[in-house]
Amino acid sequence: MRNLLVLSVVIFLAFSNGEKARFDNYKVFSVEVNNEEQLKVLREMEEAPFSSYDFWKAPGKVGHSVDVMVPPHKSSEFEEIMSSLKFETKLKISNVQELIDNEQPKAAPANDDFGWDRYHTLEEIYSWLDGLLVEYSDVLTPISAGNSVEGRPIRGVLLSYKEGNPAIFIESNTHAREWITSATATYVLNEFLTSTDPEVREIAENYDWYIFPNVNPDGFHFSHVNNRMWRKTRARHGVICLGVDPNRNWDHGWQDGSAPGASNDVCSTTYAGPAPFSEPETRNLADFVLEHADHIKIYLSYHSYSLLLLFPWSYTSAPAEDYDDLHHIGTVAADRLKEVYQTEYTVQTFYDLYISTGTSIDWAYADAGIKLAYTYEFRDNGTYGFILPADQIIPNSIEVLQSMIAMLAESTRLGYMS
To answer: Residue by residue, what is the 3-state secondary structure of 279-320?
Structure first.
């Protein structure tokens, strides 16, 4: 046991602070949760000190499945636990490192143009924004949510073609490893500036858009240069482990990890932080939203993966005041999304997926008074998980943009945009 603990500490130190992590022979399993005992064990596995299990889909409720990444040194233990409690399991990914190695196109880009055939670094995204702000200075304004804990700027743009438009807010790449989210946010912004499609022009020019491609710049940078699977911020609240889950740190329904929904273990991927809004990334973003809350009519949080469109609440089964309209508008958006590539999204409350506390959409809905707040969980449904190949950036972005066209039309029809 002592040797295993030492090994776990070494792994955490290497992944958090050292050379670039590799995931050779790490496997991802889908595990069915058929009873309360199984659910309890999975939660214990997730929350065990220095746990090396990475739950890509968290243990939520009986009847749901989880996805868990299992490192090679844990394979025997994992098999024993699964067998002893008669879990139903399915191998989804046999070698995570192979997916990482094949995520980006092999060929180098033919030129220096920013495109959507590959994933970009934070520096590349910000450089691209700089160019847009010069080229489209008549409709783009730089916006900021301050700096991260490591001092990186949290940059965005306001796109506005005319005064008096209602606004939509897009928050992207909250979780560092979800690269498809910032890729989609930048694609959508580019379409708003360059597309000649009448429906795209309609929503680009008749609504204002606050777009933050990356609200977790430290974690995102770390996921590129050190650990592709990094999720959290890079704040230090413990001796060994770093980071807070920024989507458990918002000051609505926040809790300290004493119940399912977040963790009070600094080493957990769902660590809620020592207090609500303890992190500059969430505090500054909330301050920005509050400053413009009267203008913002829809709050969109981009995440991956699972093919879901989620709405409040995240922490309670009680229906939100606008539940019927939230579900209806989400369904209209999901139906439009499906028309493009037959991708099927499920529309439900966040709580129906699993209990989460301190989420941005709950705070936006309750504290900022934004009546339409949604979390997108983009492609895919587990074949690639967070490591979605770059050749899916454009298809994912196209179908999401189509869903937003329908979402805005229905929201306007129901009077939410006035």
So the answer is: CHHHHHHHHHHHHCCCCEEEEEEEEECCCEEEECCCCCCCCC
What span, in angstroms and rounded, lies between the C-alpha atoms of 284 and 291?
11
Q: For residue 112, what are the contacts with CB-CB under 8 A and spacing of at least 6?
A: none
User: Span 350-362, mean pLDDT?
Assistant: 95
Across 160-282, the runs of DSSP E, i.e. the strands, are: 167-171, 208-212
Q: Dihedral angle at the C-alpha atoms of 354, 359, 360, 365, nearest 10 degrees?
A: 80
2 exposure class (CB count in 10 Å sphere: 0-12, 13-18, 19+): exposed
DSSP state of 27: E
Q: What is the pLDDT of residues 166-218, one digit of tens each?
A: 999 999 999 999 999 999 999 999 999 999 999 999 999 999 999 999 999 99
* 268 backbone φψ class: left, alpha, beta (φ>0; ψ -120 to 50): beta
Q: Counting Cβ atoms within 10 Å, is residue 196 exposed (0-12), middle (13-18) or buried (19+)? A: exposed
Query: What pairing do the DSSP bridges indicate for beta strands 140-147 and 153-159?
Result: antiparallel
Instruction: Please name the residue that has the structure tokens 């968290």.
Output: 58
Beta strand pairing call for 167-171 and 153-159: unpaired
What are the φ/ψ torsions at residue 158 (nearest 5 degrees)?
A: -105, 120
State how far the Cα of 367 lies from the Cα of 282, in Å rounded to an integer. Answer: 14
Mean pLDDT on 255-280: 87
Long-range contacts from 317-320, C-beta under 8 angstroms, 24+ separation = 317/349, 317/351, 319/349, 320/349, 320/365
Per-residue confidence (pLDDT) for residue 259, from 0 to 100: 61
Positions marked active-site: 377
d(CA 20, CA 76): 26
The widest CA-to-CA distance across the chain, in whole angstroms, is 65
Could you check whether the bond before residue 305 is cis, i.e. omega within 30 degrees of 0?
Answer: yes
Q: In angstroms, rounded to a whole number, what is the distance separating the alpha carbons of residues 315 and 262? A: 10
Residue 314 near residue 362 (C-beta atoms within 8 A): yes
